[in-house]
Amino acid sequence: MVQINKLARYNFRKFTQMESVFVYGTLKKGEPNHDWMTEWKEGQYKFIGRAKTVEKLPLIIASRYNIPFLLDKPGLGQEVHGEVYEVDAAMVKRLDELEDHPFFYKRELRPVRLECGTERVCWIYLIQKYRQDLLELPLLDDYKSNGPHGLVYGERSMRNIPGYSAMDDIQGNHKY
């Protein structure tokens, strides 16, 4: 099993090389936010392959916008399927913006297993502060915005509920 330096779990360092990122939700190929990587010309990315988390984690769909969230609760849920990309510093910054790291999602290093069987340590965006009742939602192993769950993803451009914050909802800061 790949070992992770505990001090490197949170990223506040400058990137000087390509970094591995594991995406499990709307950033995957064919999903609504994949163009955050493909249509942005200032950063670089390279698809490495499909993978799944080594540890079991709860992947849920929640909020009024039906957003996929990976909750930081190792051992609960399933091994989550996703994709691994190598990205440069500009792309990491762009992804951090989308995920509102470190205020909402936290980017941490975690091991994943590529389809070929090799393990790789990747940055993964996780939710660490969340309402406990979210753990009662169906736990997924693979997110698809048009999946059998029937929960249509609310694209960013369509989010117009005045005063509503998905972060506050997920963290339990307000009741909606």
Notes on the structure:
The protein is of the alpha+beta class and 176 residues long. Helix content is 12%, strand content 27%. It has helices spanning 35-38, 89-99, 166-171, and strands at 19-23, 45-53, 59-62, 67-70, 81-87, 105-114, 119-127. The strands form two sheets. A five-stranded antiparallel sheet has the order 1-5-2-6-7. Strands 3-4 form a two-stranded antiparallel ribbon. The longest helix has 11 residues, at 89-99. The model is unreliable at 1-13 (pLDDT under 50).
Taken in chain order, the helices and strands follow as EHEEEEHEEH
The radius of gyration computed from the alpha-carbon positions, rounded to a whole number of angstroms, is 16 Å
Percentage of helical residues? 10-25%
Read across the widest sheet, the strand sequence of neighbours is: 1-5-2-6-7
Low confidence ranges:
1-13
Largest sheet: 5 strands, antiparallel
What is the mean predicted local confidence, pLDDT?
90
Specify the structural class. Answer: alpha+beta
Number of helices in the DSSP assignment: 3
Report the strand count: 7
Q: Based on the structure, what is the oligomeric state of the protein chains?
A: single chain
N- to C-terminal separation?
A: 42 Å
Hey, roughly how much beta strand do the residues contain?
A: 25-35%
What is the overall silhouette?
globular
Summary keywords:
five-stranded antiparallel beta sheet; single chain; 3 helices; 176 residues; alpha+beta; disordered N terminus; two-stranded antiparallel ribbon
Concise structural overview:
The protein is α+β, with helices and mostly antiparallel strands.
